[in-house]
Amino acid sequence: MQNILVTGSSKGIGRAIAIALASDKTHLFIHGRDRDALAETEKLVKDKGSSCSQIVADISTTSGCEKIVKAVGEKSLSVLVNNAAIATVAPVEELTLDDWNRTIAVNITAPFILTQKFLPQMKKGSSIVNILSSAAKNAYTNWSSYCMSKFALRGFSETLREELRPRGIRVIAVYPRAVDTPIWDSVPGDWPREKMMKAEEVAKAVAFAVSCPPDVLIEDITLGNLAGTL
Ligand SMILES: NC(=O)c1ccc[n+]([C@@H]2O[C@H](COP(=O)([O-])OP(=O)(O)OC[C@H]3O[C@@H](n4cnc5c(N)ncnc54)[C@H](OP(=O)(O)O)[C@@H]3O)[C@@H](O)[C@H]2O)c1
């Protein structure tokens, strides 16, 4: 049985990844704060034959991250997906220090804490998947806190990869452009959501990457709509 943790799998890309990785050979640890949405993910994951544990935890705090660590316990993870993130979109003058610090906590510190805690339990052939963004490589007006966090997580991912390659643990960095998920509900402006990629496309790429034999090098995945406009 393969144990898999997907943070932020109550909705959006995380839910799609949890479903894509679900099978009768996997136990999915799904995570988020929204209990109703998590229950829906659990149903969808179980429909694919997977067993499942829900973890309700706010990862903007260290204690929330510790709750996840406690729920997984001593089990060895074959896949850790650091997916949960927030986007506070506003001009720099309008961002509050609280927005800035929460972005750091959820988007950078939580993946660091979870990676550090679970690494000793991860074996050769396992994978850490960090969901980054095209905002880890490009600057977008009004997205300063989000870009800051994704650029930082990219630096962490690339360094971690160098440390873990000799141990046979893959670090896969995923760089999607715009994906139609609930994250866009609170982004100001009119966005052509119907033209955005679907979360399922990102999930398919992740499922392919983690299913490759351990000696296959697969490290960066860039995804977007073919026109390259979103
Ligand atoms: N959508 C895009 O266009 C896009 C593009 C590139 C990269 N990404 C990246 O893809 C990943 C998933 O994004 P998404 O679009 O699927 O976002 P989403 O629909 O807003 O889902 C975000 C997930 O993260 C969880 N989450 C957020 N803050 C949390 C907190 N403090 N504690 C616990 N869980 C928390 C949410 O759980 P609850 O709601 O249950 O709290 C939810 O499950 C993120 O890393 C994002 O940066 C997204």
Describe this structure in words.
The chain has 6 helices and 7 strands. The chain has a single domain, classed as NAD(P)-binding Rossmann-like Domain (Rossmann fold). The protein has a 7-stranded parallel beta sheet, sandwiched between helices. By secondary structure, the chain is an alpha/beta fold. It starts with a strand and ends in a 7-residue tail after the last strand. Helix 1 links the parallel strand 1 and strand 2. The longest helix is centred in the middle third of the chain and has 22 residues. Helix 1 crosses helix 6. The site of NADP nicotinamide-adenine-dinucleotide phosphate has 27 residues, from helix 1.
Question: What descriptors fit this protein?
Answer:
230 residues; alpha/beta; Rossmann fold; seven-stranded parallel beta sheet; 6 helices; 39% helix; globular; binds NADP nicotinamide-adenine-dinucleotide phosphate
Q: How do you describe this structure in short?
A:
Helices cover 39% and strands 17% of the residues. The chain is built from six helices and seven strands; from the N terminus they run E-H-E-H-E-H-E-H-E-H-E-H-E.
List the helices and strands and how they pair.
Blueprint: E1 2-6, H1 12-21, E2 26-32, H2 35-47, E3 51-56, H3 62-72, E4 77-82, H4 97-118, E5 127-131, H5 144-164, E6 170-176, H6 199-211, E7 220-223
Parallel strand pairs: 1-2, 1-4, 2-3, 4-5, 5-6, 6-7
Helix pairs in contact: 1-6, 3-4, 4-5
Bound molecules: NADP nicotinamide-adenine-dinucleotide phosphate (NAP).
